[in-house]
């Protein structure tokens, strides 16, 4: 049985799920022994620990110029000591060029089979990836497992399914038979989905697999070789993905350089050199707006970005203020506000929030919200695991700076004890009140656990500001609370115009930060937060070109 | 019966045709009395003649600042004297902005019905449009009828069908029901296809409707208002389209400004002002590479271009050299080489072309080709109608310049008599031999009836040069003649990598210049000849953004 035949039922389910957009997950998100085996967790942890301080030597990329690695655990603040093979951009591009002419000629079904097989193999390493993610990003164990393992694999599957579907949308051949009156003109036509060329996928430090696999698999399924350039601070999780892809390629007698890892350092970065190389045609990027916007201006390249955004919460009226405050407190605590979907700007009318038992004043809500944050932080069975650690020292500094903003500080950022990692770099959310007139303060992303409570004239001003921020500075998420159907539709419509998805009235165990594969388009591509979307048709169709040839039928 | 119901069978046929890619045409291309009625032609001619020297006053755009019009017939070299209402860019954008919020809320089915109804009305004006096209572009009657009437309407239908289909690819709502073990999380989700905003469609002087209607209908079907900015030299054909769209909108109680005409002059152009206006989000452009490439650099805009290319013919081996020479002679004579698909660079091995009766030398083929061109030009029943007239005086000058190129002139450009228009601006093809080493001569588009016979070492060099020109300077078409299957696949593969469709071994009544709606993707979007393709999924999906909202199911 071919790999395609082996995985065809999964592929078909995934394509159906793309269109149904109901709940679908191919990879179970619970790190449960019942699902993954009794020893899966301990084995994964052991493998991660065994990797520390050594060469990551499982890649199939020969003859490196050296070995480097600068990862550091936000939990221990110690270097991981893992080194990766280094190659010059020219060697990477040269190998990718040779691999291109192999990979583009592999049939779509064979490509699909190989890529799905790689996900099956990666599933066996989810726990190892989870520990690698914890100790590079600072994510809590649960998020690290889910986001870098099953959720990332689902996003990869989504890209494979979308690519496979788009590649089938036109026939590979057809007879064009045109009646001309007394005779017919008959042409044999054929269409080829021609891959664009070398793809470079540039990763970020906070979600090293989740944000990169869609570009990797999106480019691979459409026939493009990929050079994976991780953030120097978060290499290991994606290195494991690349290694498994390479081993499946090799097992199928294909050039492992179809997917290469390209590790660099902060001091000697290679992303720009790779991106500007004339042979590189596709660029996927997750990261800061300055570099992302520069990449978008490169001519002759197809560029997919996820940059930064200013996410908002619009508070108008609620059924249960306690549940709302608890839900939002979780959202801002989760991974210490280091998610691209975390809310930052909370727009609250000066007159307060309408509730069934009367209006809740601005101050009362602010206090309730701050109390909920503290209560979660102070819960030793939840806080440390929800907050995790801070990936980058600069984030910690930014949090302290936020306390100096001109406005009432409702909650100061502070430390807390992680029972397993005494030396963890941590920061709890800072909550500052800002007047709606001080737009310069809230017109930018303040990455990390920083929350601004913005006092507005009324909900109309809240909506207008949330829309303006999204249109001007980008937004990936918006939370809104209203019990009024007219206000709800106004928010839905105005935020739609700013290409920002809205989560309405979330309470309980679902949060505005979460985006589910096969249902939620992640980043819409319609505002400055990014020009691409996981995974709409464009995300894969822009990676290849339909070219048609024709010839008269021989009589 | 709604307009959607009325036209639904046509829509369904068109969607099927998009995917079957066999021959399909909704609008008969023959200007035959049996199809269009006995008096259709004479009525159309009369209406065109009645329009001359008057205000074009059928548009539903009130309060112009003035009336302008600079069209001139290439057949009579007289001004048409038709004037069109003028509006400032600010007024156009202001009206489009108001219209946007009307049109985006019209359902997809209603939009579809209205747009298909407009095509049914435009069909009644095909002959009038044909004469308008002849006397602005210089096209012969048959081409003017077909290209601006039925073929353009088919391309418009194709864009409507593609847009309709893409807008249906995701559900408008779904229940997301995630099992969490002891309970389920249920969210009601909805997805909106949010139009990007004001669309500006910038036309060209040679194909004023065919090249513009796809952008117009592509933007309209996806909910965007359109400002149509024709080339000042070819307004009337597309003005009739816009007028009919406006009248259908009005008949359905919608703002006619959903589709506006914006006429300017060469001296006071408004394309750049419109393109750079912050409210303009979509730009469609057909025309020169300099302006097209500038438009592509505009940030925050989605830009669709068809610029210029260097089209080639690769001659390797033929079954019947006479038939090949005749076919190619027609291709270069057709509309005096003013089609974006017309071939320019003919690559011929120095050793000649293989035929069943031995090798045909370079010189013998060159002579045969030149003779075939002359013979068609000199055929009074065909020549004048195939060649038509030259749209722009600069093209005539460029043809004369070509005779001075360093190389043997196999055929000089000359005049001929058009029996109906003694004063027609005409030019027959000039054919010049160029050595393959003189790349600077053939590395650019020489728009008009200019043919370069490039003497190459062998077919491999021919292929390499054709590919290089396409990759570096763009190409929209390629003709290739070979009886060798290995060479054929090499050409198909190498030109695919340059995103250039190849017509193999065309003889008889089908030409490499021709691109059929619903089958041939026009311009692939994969090389510098343009970044868009009529009509692949991107062509419509890039005009809107999928935005999803969600809310817990109320218990």
From TrEMBL, chains A, B:
<dbReference type="InterPro" id="IPR016162">
    <property type="entry name" value="Ald_DH_N"/>
</dbReference>
<dbReference type="InterPro" id="IPR016163">
    <property type="entry name" value="Ald_DH_C"/>
</dbReference>
<dbReference type="InterPro" id="IPR015590">
    <property type="entry name" value="Aldehyde_DH_dom"/>
</dbReference>
<dbReference type="GO" id="GO:0009898">
    <property type="term" value="C:cytoplasmic side of plasma membrane"/>
</dbReference>
<dbReference type="Pfam" id="PF00171">
    <property type="entry name" value="Aldedh"/>
</dbReference>
<protein>
    <submittedName>
        <fullName>Phenylacetic acid degradation protein PaaN</fullName>
    </submittedName>
</protein>
<dbReference type="GO" id="GO:0003842">
    <property type="term" value="F:L-glutamate gamma-semialdehyde dehydrogenase activity"/>
</dbReference>
<keyword id="KW-0520">NAD</keyword>
<dbReference type="InterPro" id="IPR011975">
    <property type="entry name" value="PaaN_2"/>
</dbReference>
<dbReference type="InterPro" id="IPR050485">
    <property type="entry name" value="Proline_metab_enzyme"/>
</dbReference>
<dbReference type="InterPro" id="IPR016161">
    <property type="entry name" value="Ald_DH/histidinol_DH"/>
</dbReference>
<feature type="domain" description="Aldehyde dehydrogenase">
    <location>
        <begin position="92"/>
        <end position="497"/>
    </location>
</feature>
<keyword id="KW-0560">Oxidoreductase</keyword>
<dbReference type="GO" id="GO:0010133">
    <property type="term" value="P:L-proline catabolic process to L-glutamate"/>
</dbReference>
């Amino acid at each position: 049985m071919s790999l395609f035949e082996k995985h065809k039922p999964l592929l078909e389910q995934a394509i159906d799920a793309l269109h149904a957009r109901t709940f679908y997950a191919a990879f179970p998100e619970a790190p449960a022994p019942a699902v993954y085996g009794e020893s899966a967790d301990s084995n994964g942890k052991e493998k991660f620990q065994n990797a520390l301080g050594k060469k990551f030597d499982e890649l199939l990329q020969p003859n490196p110029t050296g070995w480097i690695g600068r990862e550091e655990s936000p939990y221990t603040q110690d270097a991981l000591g893992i080194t990766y093979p280094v190659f010059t951009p020219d060697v990477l591009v040269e190998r990718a060029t040779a691999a291109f002419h192999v990979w583009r000629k592999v049939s779509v079904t064979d490509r699909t089979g190989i890529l799905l097989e790689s996900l099956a193999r990666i599933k066996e390493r989810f726990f190892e990836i989870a520990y690698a993610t914890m100790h590079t990003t600072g994510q809590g164990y649960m998020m690290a497992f889910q986001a870098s393992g099953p959720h990332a694999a689902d996003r990869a599957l989504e890209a494979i399914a979308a690519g496979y579907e788009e590649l089938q949308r036109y026939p590979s051949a057809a007879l064009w038979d045109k009646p001309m009156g007394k005779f017919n003109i008959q042409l044999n036509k054929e269409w080829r989905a021609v891959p664009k060329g070398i793809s470079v996928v540039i990763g970020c430090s906070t979600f090293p697999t989740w944000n990169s696999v869609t570009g990797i698999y999106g480019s691979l399924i459409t026939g493009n070789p990929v050079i994976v350039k991780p953030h120097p601070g978060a290499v290991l999780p994606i290195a494991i993905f690349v290694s498994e892809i390479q081993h499946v390629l090799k097992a199928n007698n294909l050039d492992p350089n179809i997917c290469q890892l390209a590790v660099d350092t902060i001091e000697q970065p290679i992303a720009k050199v790779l991106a500007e190389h004339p042979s590189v045609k596709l660029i996927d990027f997750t990261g800061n707006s300055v570099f992302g916007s520069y990449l978008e201006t490169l001519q002759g390249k197809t560029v997919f970005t996820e940059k930064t955004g200013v996410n908002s919460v619009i508070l108008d009226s609620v059924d249960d203020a306690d549940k709302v405050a608890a839900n939002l407190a979780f959202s801002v605590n989760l991974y210490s506000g280091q998610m691209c979907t975390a809310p930052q700007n909370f727009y609250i009318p000066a007159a307060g929030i309408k509730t069934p038992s009367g209006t809740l004043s601005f101050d009362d809500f602010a206090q309730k919200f701050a109390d909920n944050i503290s209560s979660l932080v102070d819960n030793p069975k939840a806080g440390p695991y929800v907050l995790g650690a801070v990936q980058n020292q600069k984030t910690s500094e930014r949090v302290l700076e936020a306390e100096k903003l001109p406005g009432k500080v409702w909650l100061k950022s502070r430390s807390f004890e992680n029972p397993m990692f005494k030396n963890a770099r941590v920061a709890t959310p800072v909550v500052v009140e800002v007047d709606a007139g001080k737009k310069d303060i809230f017109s930018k992303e303040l990455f990390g656990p920083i929350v601004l409570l913005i006092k507005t004239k009324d909900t109309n001003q809240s909506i207008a500001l949330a829309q303006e921020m999204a249109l001007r500075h980008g937004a990936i998420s918006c939370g809104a609370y209203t019990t009024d159907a007219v206000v709800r539709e106004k928010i839905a419509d105005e935020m739609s115009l700013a290409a920002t998805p809205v989560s309405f009235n979330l309470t309980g165990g679902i949060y505005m930060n979460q985006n589910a594969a096969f249902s939620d388009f992640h980043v819409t591509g319609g505002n400055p937060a990014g020009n691409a979307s996981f995974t709409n048709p464009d995300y894969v169709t822009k990676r290849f070109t339909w070219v048609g040839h024709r010839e008269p039928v021989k009589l």
